[in-house]
Amino acid sequence: MSGSLPQTKDLVNGAFTLVKEYTKLTADLAEEDYDYHMAFPAFRHQITRHSEAVVSLMDKFCQLLPAKRRVTLSSTGGKLTDPQRAAVMEAADSLLENVDGLLDELKGRRLSAKDQLSVKFGSELQGVVPSSSYSVFNAAGVSVLRPQLTFEHPVDNSPTPFRPVYYDEKGVRHVGEPGVHPFAERIKAVSVPSEQLLLKTETPYLSLVTCPLTFVDTVEDLEAVVAVLLNETEIAVDLEHHDFYSYQGFTCLMQISTRTQDFIVDCLKVRANMYLMAPVFLQPNIVKVFHGAREDVRWLQKDFGLYIVNLFDTSIALQNLHMPHSLAFAVDHFCQVKLNKKYQTADWRVRPIPAEMVSYAQQDTHFLLYVYDRLKQLLLNCEARASVGNMLLHVFQESRLLSLERYEKPHLDPDVTYKQALGRSLGGLSSSQLQVAREIFNWRDMAAREADDSPSAVMHISCVLSIATKLPTSANEVLKCCSPVSVAVRTNVMKLLQIVKDAIGSADSLKDGANGDVKPKPLPNVGVALRYMGVHRSMTGTLPSIEQRADTAFTVEDTHVVVRTEPSAWFETMRNVAAILRRKPYYPIALPGHDVVTRMSAVKRAREVEEMKVKGEGEGEEEEKRVHVDAEEPTVERENSSERGEGMAGPCLQEGLEVKDEVEEIDVPTQKPLELKEGAISLRQQYGTGSANRKKARLGKKNKS
C-alpha cells in the first residue's frame, strides 16, 4: 500500500488543482450581464455543456446517499431546485465525513466510545500525532465522540426550570424543587472552625516531580480517594469543563490536592458515581480552597449534585487585598512559578489526554494550598475598615455567599435575548432586518438545544448579523453568510432561507397594516399632563412629543386657577448673590504702559486747547486780514506760529501731573518713539513689530548693557 500512496497523493493534488481553477473561472462570470451574454449562441452553448457536466457529476454523488434520501438530477436540464441543492450538499458532507473516518482509522485515531474512555491518562495511541502538535482546542484532528451519549441520565435541554438532584452524606439521592438551594440553611448555620482563623506558619509545597499523582478512573479508586480526603482539614479543588459541543456543558476532570499528593478524577468515566464525593464537600471541618469558584459551584450542582460547605475562594481574598486576582499572578507572586495557560480553553474530552494537558491540570491545584496559607497571613495582618472587621473572616463570609449560588438553565426570551446578544449591532437595521435577526437567533438557540451543541457551535453570532443585514434570497447566499458552516446550518439551509422569507413577509405586512386604516393609539399624557399647584418646578428643556396632535380631554370646569408659586431655595440664593455683586465697588486696575498713554493724552489735549484759543483770536481780526492780506500775510503767519509755541505752555489738566506756571516747550517727534525718562515703555513702541525689529531690540539691549 505504501507504493500506491504517492500515486494517490498526486491524483488528489491534480484533482484539487483542477477544481480550484474551475471555481476561479466560475467566479469571473458576468452576473449582471448574464442574460445579455446568453443571447449569443456560442456563449449559451458553452454554459449549457458545462452545466450538464456538473449536474451529471452531482447526480453521481447523490446516488451514494441512502435510498430514502436519494435524488435523481440527470433530467433537470442543467438547473437545480432548492431541495436538489440541499441533497447535493448533504451528499458532499457525507462523503467528507467518510473520508475523515477512514483517515482516522488508518492512523489509529478512531476509537469506539468504550475504548475511548478506557485509555489511561497521559498515554499515547500508536500512530497519533505527538503531543507537541496539540493546540489549545483539539486542532490536531483527533476524533472525539460525544461523551454525553454515554451518560446514564440523558441531558435535559428543555426550557423548563432546572430541578436539582442532590445526594446527602449517606449517598441517598434526592430531587429538589426548582429555584431552591437544598443546603442553604446548613451553609448559613455552619460557622468557620476556630483553628482555621488562627495565624499559622505556611506549609511548603512539594515539587511537582516528587509529589505523587494519582489518576482516578474507577469506582474503587474513587472510594479510596474519598477515604483519604475525609482525614484532611484543607483540600484544593478545581474543575475542567467543556461547553462548546454541549448546550449546558459538562465537567470532564476534577483536580484535588492535599499537602502531600495530587489526584485527577476522570469525571467522564465515573460520572454516575461522583455522588460518593458528597461527604467530603459537605464536611464543615474541611475547608475547600477554590480559585474563582463561581462557575465551579454551579457545575458541581448541575453535573454531580454536589454542594459545598466551608468554601474559601482565593480570588476573593486577592480582591480584598487589592491585588491582581488571577491564579497565574498568585502562583507567580507567592511561589515564583510561571503557569502556562495555553490549555485553559482546550478540549478536555480528548482521550488519551496529552502529557502537557495533564501537567496543566495538576498545576491548577498543586500550589493552591500554599497560596491559601500566605493569603491567610496577609488577611490576618491587614487592618480593615470598622465595618469589615476581621479580613479573614470577611473573606470566609463572602465565599459562603458564593457557595449559595444556584445553577439555572440558559433562558431565552424570544423578544429580548437577541437584542441583548447583538446589542449595538442592531443599530441602523430596518424593521425587516430586525425581524430576520430575531427569527434566526431564536432558531439558532432551538437547533443548539436539539443537537446538544452550544449556540456558537451551531452558528456564530456574527453570522446571525450577516444574514439579517444581507437578507439572502438563495441557499448559496445563506451559506456565504455563515463561516464556518456547521452541520446544523448545512442540513437546515432551506429552512433558514424560508425563515428569512417569512420574516421579511411578516415585517412588510406589519408595516402595511401600520400605514393602512388602522387608527393609531393616542400618545399617553400628551396635552393632559397633571399640573401640580403651589410647587415650583424647574424647567428641564424637555418638550412633549408633537408626533400626533392630541385632543384635550378636559373641560373648563375641570381647570383650576394657578396660585402664586413660591420660589425655590436655589432661586432665592442666586438672587441674593446677584444683589451682593451689584453692590460691590468696582476698582479699575491699571494695565502695563498706562503712564505712557496718560502723558501722551495730556500733550494731545494741551495742543487742542491752544488751537482753540488761537482760533478764537483769529476770528476778531478777520476783517483786517482781508484788507491787508497781501501785505501782512507773512507777519500773521509768524504771529500764529509764535502763538502756537506759547500754547504749549498752557495748563495740562491730567491726573498725576503737576501744573506749572511756566512749562518748557515739549518736542513731539513724528517718526521717532516718544522718549520718556520716567515710566515704562514697551519694546514694540520703541522698535516696532516683526522679526527684524525684534533682532534690533536684542542688539539694542545688548549694547546698553
TrEMBL record:
GO terms for biological process: exonucleolytic trimming to generate mature 3'-end of 5.8S rRNA from tricistronic rRNA transcript (SSU-rRNA, 5.8S rRNA, LSU-rRNA); histone mRNA catabolic process; nuclear polyadenylation-dependent antisense transcript catabolic process; nuclear polyadenylation-dependent CUT catabolic process; nuclear polyadenylation-dependent rRNA catabolic process; nuclear polyadenylation-dependent snoRNA catabolic process; nuclear polyadenylation-dependent snRNA catabolic process; poly(A)-dependent snoRNA 3'-end processing. It is found in: Nucleus. Residues 430-510 form the HRDC domain. Residues 693-705 have a biased composition (Basic residues). Gene3D superfamilies: HRDC domain, Ribonuclease H-like superfamily/Ribonuclease H. One of its GO terms (molecular function) is nucleotide binding. This is Ribosomal RNA processing protein 6.
